[in-house]
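WARN no homologs supplied; continuing
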Amino acid sequence: MTSQLHTVEKIGGTSMSNYEAVRDNIIIGNRSKDDLYQRIFVVSAYGGVTNELLEHKKTGEPGVYALFADAESDWAWGDDLTKLVKFLTDINGELFEDPMLKQQADQFITDRIEGVRGCLIDLQRLCSYGQFQLEEHLLTVREMLAGIGEAHSAFNTALKLQQEGINARFVDLTGWRDAELLPLDEKLQQAFDAVDLSRELPIVTGYAQCKEGLMRTFDRGYSEMTFSRVAVITEAREAIIHKEYHLSSADPNIVGEDKVVPLGRTNYDVADQLANLGMEAIHPRAGKGLRQNEIPLRVMNTFEPEHTGTLITGDYISETAQVEIIAGAKGVFAIEVFDQDMQGEPGSDRKILDVLSRYKVRFMAKDTNANTITHYVDSTLKHVKRVVRALKEEFPNAEISTRKVSLVSAIGSDMKVPGILARSVKSLADNEISVLAIHQCMRQVDIQFVIDEDHYEKAIAALHGVLIEPHNHEYAIVAASIE
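OK structure emitted
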């Protein structure tokens, strides 16, 4: 395989649900038939499918996995699996007009799901014996179910492209009936050694079964890790993510489409700050591999293929110090531990971190003074209550309180701008938004404001108005120079 000729491109679930847009804007575009190749596509499941397989990402409504993991659901997961067959074959019906192709697609996904059903029935029976504990197998079950979504979308896309005269190749990394479990890099090397990129267009499952267990670390961000490692192992010229929106200076639904601008250029440091807020351009661990191997990452809008998108590299610093993006997170829990015994006693923070780690609760920011440590966590109320109970055992004399807040950040590759903090706080005050806490590191790539949960959208709009909109013409010049 010749290195540095090809790109590796990831297509998100919302984009995948619009096959015509994917075909016309991403896969074919303005290319001649000879130019269609030297590209690898890593695809996500169709929009909403992973929610049905696992659980709804935002509401927590149970899917097949959550019902199976709940001992009280008994056979409810089986009924849900039956509904899933109809859901996925209905998607096939919208995609394939040719009844023979529809039958082929239906047969593929039905065989997968019925195979999984048989496996789960056997596992449930096995775990009815005291020597086998279901909890020990749940991560494997979660991975097996998640893989169904990407296998479905990748198989369909390859089949549809083949019908349209493109030499697409379905590359199944889900490990379905594989005889051995390989490390991720070895599995990818093996898969792509057999591919001729000069005349084949690989359509690759975003989920890859491997020894490391991608979901153990990345949970539902696993497709980004697959995408990143494929780019590294195959020595790609560029990694590209296709989303249904631009990586913009703020959420256009909050600020207004006429006021936001695509970033055009930024660096992996900014991408990490976004990931911390749950607004991933790419998972930090996935971005690390690209950065270390000096592979540029481009984020593009599926529905604006003529736009060059945003290029992310390791060495980029904006020519003038400025804020590039206003982003944030709602529904964050502040867990405050106030204990007068803390002063001068090392180790209090470590005890808190141990509790957060035990309950797998991720913190997004924290602040501390002589007798108080506050962690701002991205979690559910149920998990927060467990954390608080554990903290009360660790700190019996402490006052422990929780509060729901929002975090809003001004982020940029170089924000060494005199007076930026004063302007930001004044803008929030002018909009009657109280600042509960402020975080700014010496590295000066972000300033984080903790505010009341109800003021989230107003704060985003206020900060964008004072820190970015006056410079929008400069962004337009950057974007034009890239094009």
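The first strand starts at residue 7 and ends at 11.
OK
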